Amino acid sequence: MKNCLIILYCVMSLSAFTQTTDRGHLSGSFDSYTQFYQKDEKINAILPQDKVGSNNFLKLDYTYKGFSAGVQFESYLPSIAGYPFNINESKLINRYFKYTAKKISVQVGDFYEQFGSGLIYRSWENRQIGINNALEGINVQVTPVSFLHVKIISGKQRKIFDRANSVVRGADATIDFSKLSKKENPKARIEAGFSYVSRYQQYTGPDVDFPATVRAAAARLSISGANASFGLEYVQKGKDPSINNNQDLGNGRALLVNGSVAAGKFGLNLTLRSISNMDFRGERDAIATSVPVNFIPALTRPHDYLTTNIYVYNAQAQGEIGGQADIYYTIGKNVKKPSRIGINFSHYRSLQTKNNIFSIGDNAYFRDLSIEWKKKWDNKLSSVLAYHNLFYNKSVVEGGIYDNITANIVVLNTTYKYAAKKSFRFELQHLFTQDDNGNWAAAVTEFNFAPSFSFYVSDLYNYDVTNTHYPNIGGSFTKNGSRFSVAYGRQRAGLFCVGGICRFVPAATAITATLTITFNSK
Amino acid sequence: MRKLCIILLCLFYYTFGFAQTDLPQVKIKTLNGAEVGFAQLSANKDTALIVSFWATWCIPCITELETINDQLQERQLQTPFKLIAVSVDDTRSSARVPSFVKGRGWNFPIYLDTNSDLKRALNINDIPHILIIKNGKIIYQHTGYVPGNEEELFEVISKQ
């Protein structure tokens, strides 16, 4: 009995000991992107007056059981050239407190949220592009019964270092029908969702019927089994005259359909989307990347080679109809030397009739057919061969009056691992076109010494019309969750991947230094 | 007394072995849309869990996952561990993830972090980013991938 008591006492004190030593999880990051600009008339580079741009982000998050809290401090000294805003300020801009229990979570402060695919509502952060429309307010999520999940949000959108002068409110409910069945693991999962979002911005003009509050509603359905899935989402937005739709008084509509099948080592995905008058913002006179309420991405294949990044589609929120298909296939039984094929086809056109999302127009906006063959030859050598054929309506995508562009691109990307931790990568690319600036050629050579060092030299060369080289040289040092890199050269805007990291970079001639640190307590 | 010590020692490990994880309680989704709590997913006991953050548009991420995937069975025979991959594709490209994964013949669990909630909670700046979690704690992390990085990863795993 005495022993039992001793043991019980020891267990209790041990439990208390583990409780007190369990200090929660601290996570933090520092992300710095600094450029020292050089005058370069050849590419019309934006040259800030003091020739320096520096974006810095410090973020800390602490989690202890169901509680979490965090802050984000941002410092623009000043913001880098080509950023959507030009400020020279620092501020503690995001802070939140969150409590999560089994059936409820409450977050106050700044939060990011998404309803469905984001066609009706999404708040997110993209530091490279300069979007942060976090909502400052309250986000409550409840799961009263296992098959129902409800989100309720209300707050003001972040607008650079300020707030949009409007209130965004929303509610979203998801019903999981598979949780209603008695079966432990039903083969098919059926889910329906409904969303409502409103934006109120005070109107002081003379029009008595002017909609100060814009309302939008959405419904979605998804059915997914082991090897196939189908998804459908429809959004309707009320009257929202703004600078973006030339004060149009019609409703906005969007329809998104997605289907995918998979069998063995074969996968097929098909997405169709039609949108009309769906530009939805926190402020009526906001443009470009400022205070978006919803998210309308270009549904095309994202590219990350120098030449495939020259003609990139941008979704037309005022009206477009189209879709894309993806096929992925692994050939051959030899698991050690697989051949992997990826095919993507995307095509977008105008709407024939304004506000009719089922009418296909005569004006083509974008078309892209890409075929990629990835082959592992042995443990040392692997290669990627890619071909693209694209059509690009520059007048629509970039605005202005230009001729349309048809181009073909070939990319060869080879990696040779000559020792356990040493490798070099070599890229050769060519873009063939008789339009716009004519042909482009590109080459990249990269030397990697895992796990820490990587060096590269690259050149993108437009030899037809502008006769311009975009040379770059750089290197990086990586240790655990931290990475430091330095590069010097000319850069076109676009995704740029070197040393295993992809970033969006604006056009400039500069020395670029990046430092990213990720810290997670052990 | 010796018995008591052994019992106490066992209880000590038992209590520690089941210490609650404090990793972020963020929900991510399976490929068919079911929500899973990351803290519960990673509250593994003594088997190391590799968590790889990737996206369909990130070439180095795919190279890293395929390198690990090609050696998976071989390495797991030496030291047991689990591997999961969390896609941070947003809705621009998240719909293609299931067919992408199937068509590449990957045979490890894939999860979706469509609005980067988990990536943000763990303060991951860039991808690829890999974590090793054991007993609910992050014991190793690495950002970026170049061929040969997997050697360091497996060195850490084999010491577990």
TrEMBL record, chain A:
Q: Which InterPro entries match?
A: DUF6029
Give start-end of the signal peptide.
1-18
Q: Which domain of life is it from?
A: Bacteria
Q: Which UniProt keywords apply?
A: Signal
* The protein's name in its UniProt record: DUF5723 domain-containing protein
Show the taxonomic lineage.
Bacteria, Pseudomonadati, Bacteroidota, Chitinophagia, Chitinophagales
Automatic annotation (TrEMBL), chain B:
Keyword terms, alphabetized: Signal
User: Pfam families of this UniProt entry?
Assistant: Redoxin
Q: What is the name of the protein in this document?
A: TlpA family protein disulfide reductase
Give the Thioredoxin domain ranges. Answer: 17-160
Q: Which GO terms describe its molecular function?
A: oxidoreductase activity
* Keyword Signal listed: yes
Signal sequence region: 1-19
Gene3D superfamilies under this entry?
A: Glutaredoxin (3.40.30.10)
